[in-house]
Design brief:
heterodimer, A: mainly alpha, 79% helix, B: 307 residues, alpha/beta, Rossmann fold, 3 domains, six-stranded mixed sheet, four-stranded antiparallel sheet
């Protein structure tokens, strides 16, 4: 078989597994929960806009600052983490619990293909649920009678979407690794996301570089408490360093998850 | 002739529990029945043969090569698992097509093979229905279809007749015999002797993770006949069925289940019983939902054998 036909076959297998997984993930109860969080963020945007437009209360913030605040707290620290945690840890465990993994394991495809296909499905569904939330929130807070402010900050929106996508990939690969490795990975994932990432990323010194949050904060165009502290003590990583680290971390997590899938006897968990 | 599957001192243990204990055998083309009570180690052995488990000790090979993580080998293996698990939202055709796509067939070939596999297991009418809406027998048949659609040389079928109605059972038995005659190596497990006997004379007896005996079915047959055979039937009108079955000379006892939808009977001649049952059901319009045979009787024979 030529290298090209092997690549085409490999891609078809990845795509098939991604479609299978996407169908399972999309129609799970998790989607309802994630959609509810997304809807809540959009509602908060609407509420913020209404308060600011009709001056229900005195507020020192502009709609742009409300968007910035929503992005750095609700989207990055909450929605992205929850989406990738729920779906990432379920990638392998749902197949194990549903006993359908057998059908994939007895096919003539390398096991890492299964992991890559599933990870692609995770990124597709996460992007599908998170990116529209950002776009709608932006539109709610920026649209005026004229399109000036909307178009003025469109570059920031583009950056936000790019960074959120990078965060989805990084957290997604991390939680996929936990899902492939541990039987009850969601609890470990929660401890990691809200314990380790939540606490260590705000500590001064080198340890904060051991979190995904640190690199996302470093490239994030908005200000939040963590970013402000980091800026004050001069502990932001550089743009290139942050992007490269996030990409390398994701590749490492995905490769390790693939290796675990290759070596682990999943039928023992069924 | 070199063996298709060869196990040498093969063992598998889960922590302190030994599931397969120093098993050695060689399987050539044709049908081989793996017979043993539930928990004997049949499924573990099949999972070792299909590369889902790695041997703890000893070795297992197929066509001379190792099985664990040897993915190209899976072009040549078809596996029908015991568990009743599916991607419930997919239709039969979608399920087969997705799995065939992983074998690298073209889309035309996938369509042709899916259709052929569905015709073989008589599921063409339900091809476009979601698997979630299939009856237990239909689910069993779609499992068989996915195992055979890529035309493998080796078929590993774990309890393939479980949950099938008598007609589908007979049809599956005919198919398995046909695959054996066509030169495929078919390893089929069951805890019911007459099912295995209908497919092959060549059996391997498994008990407590060990092979007790292998060879012709004749000798074990004589032992089995000395023990009454338990048969569990779930149907639309169990009380009416019981009245009809009382007349069978081989039926020696009967009891109803608390839910009132099922009965368990003991038959001295299970073969004759299974031959006569479809006619009784059809004549009286009784709808059969499930028929299985608990392995108590086989367990008794194995206890006798290991003494």
């Amino acid at each position: 078989m030529s290298v090209e036909s092997a690549l085409v076959r490999g891609w078809r297998s990845v795509n098939t597994i991604a479609s299978l997984t996407l169908d399972t993930l999309f129609w799970s109860k998790k989607t309802i929960f994630v959609a509810a969080i997304s809807a809540l963020i959009m509602l908060l945007s609407l509420l913020g806009r209404l308060i600011l437009t009709y001056r229900w209360i005195r507020s020192p913030f502009t709609p742009e600052q409300v968007f910035s605040s929503l992005m750095s707290t609700a989207v990055i620290h909450f929605l992205v983490v929850f989406v990738t945690l729920f779906y990432g840890t379920a990638l392998i465990s749902e197949e194990v619990e549903g006993k359908t993994l057998t059908y994939l394991l007895v096919r003539p495809i390398p096991k890492p293909t299964i992991m890559v296909g599933k990870f692609l499905a995770l990124i597709w569904i996460s992007t599908l649920l998170v990116i529209p939330t950002i776009f709608v929130s932006y539109a709610i807070l920026y649209v005026r009678t004229d399109m000036g402010p909307f178009l003025e900050d469109i570059g920031v929106l583009g950056k936000d979407i790019g960074i959120v996508f990078l965060a989805l990939v990084a957290y997604g690969s991390m939680f996929s690794l936990l899902g492939a490795w541990l039987r009850h990975s969601i609890l470990t994932g929660l401890v990691y996301a809200f314990g380790w990432e939540g606490i260590v990323s705000y500590l001064p010194g080198f340890t904060r570089k051991l979190t995904i949050t640190h690199y996302i904060q470093s490239i994030f165009p908005h200000e939040d408490a963590g970013t402000s502290i980091a800026m004050m003590i001069g502990e932001r990583s550089g743009l290139l360093e942050s992007i490269l680290t996030l990409i390398l971390l994701s590749a490492f997590f995905l490769a390790t998850a693939s290796l675990i899938l290759r070596e682990k006897e999943y039928v023992l968990d069924q | 002739m070199s063996a298709v599957i060869e196990a040498k001192s093969l063992s598998k243990w889960y922590g302190q529990v030994i599931a397969v204990n120093k098993v050695s055998f060689a399987a050539h083309s044709g049908v081989i029945g793996l017979l043993g009570p539930n928990g004997a180690g049949k499924s573990t052995l099949m999972k070792l043969i299909t590369g889902q488990l790695r041997p703890s000790q000893g070795e297992i090979t197929m066509f001379g090569g190792r099985i664990w993580n040897n993915f190209p080998l899976f072009h040549r293996i078809g596996f029908c698992p015991e568990q009743d698990s599916f991607y419930e939202r997919m239709t039969g055709t979608e399920f087969l097509s997705a799995l065939l796509r992983m074998h690298g067939f073209s889309e035309d070939e996938i369509a042709r093979r899916s259709k052929l596999a569905l015709e073989t297991v008589k599921l063409v009418d339900a091809a476009d229905k979601k698997i979630g809406s299939y009856s237990k027998g239909m689910r069993q048949r779609i499992k068989m279809a996915q195992a055979t659609a890529h035309d493998p040389e080796v078929l590993i079928l774990d309890e393939p007749l479980a949950g099938m109605d008598p007609v589908a059972r007979w049809e599956t038995i005919r198919l398995v015999r046909g695959w054996g005659k066509a030169g495929k190596c078919v390893l089929v497990s069951s805890h019911i002797l007459h099912e295995i006997e209908a497919m092959t004379r060549n059996i391997i007896l498994v008990h407590n993770g060990q092979i007790l005996a292998e060879g012709d079915v004749h000798q074990i047959r004589d032992l089995i006949d000395k023990h009454p055979h338990n048969i569990y039937i779930r149907c639309s009108r169990p009380r009416q069925l019981a009245e009809l079955l009382v007349a069978f000379p081989d039926v020696i006892s009967m009891r109803f289940h608390p839910d009132g939808d099922a009965l368990t009977l003991e038959s001295k001649k299970p073969d004759e019983f299974y031959d006569r049952l479809p006619e009784v059901l059809l004549k009286n319009g009784i709808e059969l939902e499930e028929i299985t045979s608990p392995d108590d009787n086989l367990q008794a024979v194995f206890q006798y054998l290991v003494k």
